[in-house]
Design goal:
alpha+beta, homodimer, two-stranded antiparallel sheet, 15% strand
């Protein structure tokens, strides 16, 4: 739920005057999104999203994110297209925050993942990776494997307060994963946060991919691992291998996975689970009670981590 | 910030099938509104708001609220018009909650009140009161003067924890206000919660009045008192008599105030301030820390209460 920065009508009017999108018709805060302030904006030119970037986004990264979205949108990926102002800029300051206007995407994110969502997701992820190949600038994944030991060190002291034994369990997993982490797989631009609430569907078709503010230059198959964890576990934490097969099959049909990528799936999925355990643990410990942000339970991802630690090979994912 | 109930895509599809408004195009949670879950809904027929009524709204009151909105909208008041389903009903159940679809209103609510907003507000409030005259069913104001002693009793024990001396200050005010409360002023349907975030403006004109879920049958001038408190104090709690004069003047031009209503303005404004002190105090004490609701500071309205207690007559409001 996210509107952290209130925008006055005068400030909004001044901001919109920098664009060629006609007069303001409506402006409402959007509840979705936990990192930034998002507003649904309607002008005479149509519907847009206005985003104010809050503290978790590093301002210096914004041109990279917006450039990637523009690059992908121009290549047919259904992602928000940054709107340029009269001065050519897509990024400017509003209420003391960096801010941008992007196009509105139709569709609804699936509150409950069904099998029918998984193949379109896999195909869209492969298309995103292919379309990103000629986006040259790179962004280090600030939440990639190199960050996990430090994240663990910050959160470890409190892990056992959440569940006794969690600290030792995570420490063992961290060491094993980093030791086995593959380095020589194909790299490129990944979304890195493609959870169901970032994917819209309309009439059974995938209609939008949003929220590129964790995107980075990383192992492509790691993005697939993030999706396997986010889309293929049932609410009781059982793993739905039919969903996984649909996701992987559709991805592989568009961008065939190398043998080394297939073989690395278990450790990639372990790492992808650990990354969300660690950041959720960090947020759990550091979110003041009374804050407006919903804390996500780190244990949801500990359950996923355990499944992936027990996986012997790509066969565990139906592949 | 409010989306308390998540609506699955299957539940939404089933719900929309009861209406004649075409296929779903988009569906986003809206951050505004603290009592209910609100979604921006787009279908082939246009834009709508889907509201799920949460626990604070008594289900038995909903037909009255929706009936009032329909009555007012038909008489030209720019308020949401409930959309009827194929079965003729405007109210049905979705995800275990009573729910309704209403029309979308253009405009933006003023984050900072300017003088130019006050006359249109006064005129719209008078028009609402006039248009409500032939809406026959009555609703007792559950947060009217008869409720204040009981609200005070629930909150009094903790008042001094918020500010030492607050309990005695509120008790004295409560007794004085109830003793002086006028009973024989014109009554009718009032909005009872017309704060700036419930009023939209577009191109300098008032374009929408929303959130009728505190509406009740009550002294009409009490609604004006609620608006004086909500619109005419500056952020430093100084009273802007020019704004008050604009609000009262525009109201009076459309529905001339009786001499008794003018004379009662101080006590009506005192009561209107006390009502929000008491409910905010109650929420402050009873909101668990970590809840997603923003608690509003009761002391904001204590400051308004003091100004109104010092007001000798309507002259204090520029009238």
């Amino acid at each position: 739920m996210a509107v952290y920065t209130e925008v006055s009508d005068e400030a909004l009017a001044g901001f919109l005057a920098e664009y060629d999108i006609g007069k303001l018709i409506a402006f409402r805060g959007i509840a979705e999104g936990v990192e930034n302030s998002n507003y649904a904006l309607r002008t005479e030119a149509g519907d847009f999203i206005l985003t104010l970037y809050e503290k978790r986004v590093v301002p210096a990264d914004l041109p990279w994110f917006l450039g990637l979205m523009e690059h992908l949108a121009e290549r047919g990926i259904p992602c928000p297209l940054p709107v340029h102002g009269r001065d050519g800029q897509a990024l400017r300051v509003l209420c003391g925050r960096q801010a941008a206007i992007t196009t509105f995407l139709p569709g609804v994110w699936p509150r409950r993942v069904r099998l029918a969502h998984c193949a379109p997701l896999g195909a869209a992820l492969a298309a995103l990776h292919l379309a990103g190949r000629d986006y040259a600038p790179e962004r280090v994944n600030a939440l990639g494997p190199a960050s996990w030991a430090s994240l663990f060190a910050h959160a470890a002291g409190d892990a056992d307060r959440i569940r006794p034994g969690l600290r030792a369990e995570l420490e063992a997993a961290l060491h094993g994963i980093l030791e086995a982490w593959p380095e020589d797989l194909p790299r490129g631009q990944i979304h890195a946060d493609l959870f169901p609430d970032n994917v819209f569907f309309l009439d059974g078709k995938l209609s939008g991919l949003i929220d590129f503010y964790f995107a980075a230059t990383e192992l492509l198959a790691y993005d697939l691992a993030i999706c396997l964890n986010a889309w293929c576990f049932e609410p009781d934490y059982s793993f739905n291998v039919t969903k996984a097969r649909a996701l992987l099959g559709a991805y592989d049909a568009a961008r065939p996975l190398l043998q080394a990528e297939r073989a690395a799936l278990p450790v990639l999925c372990q790492g992808a689970a650990l990354r969300f355990v660690l950041t959720r643990l960090f947020d759990w410990i550091n979110t003041p009670s009374g804050a407006l942000v919903t804390r996500k339970d780190p244990l949801d991802y500990v359950r996923r981590l355990r499944f992936n630690l027990a996986a012997k090979d790509a066969g565990a994912y139906g592949f």
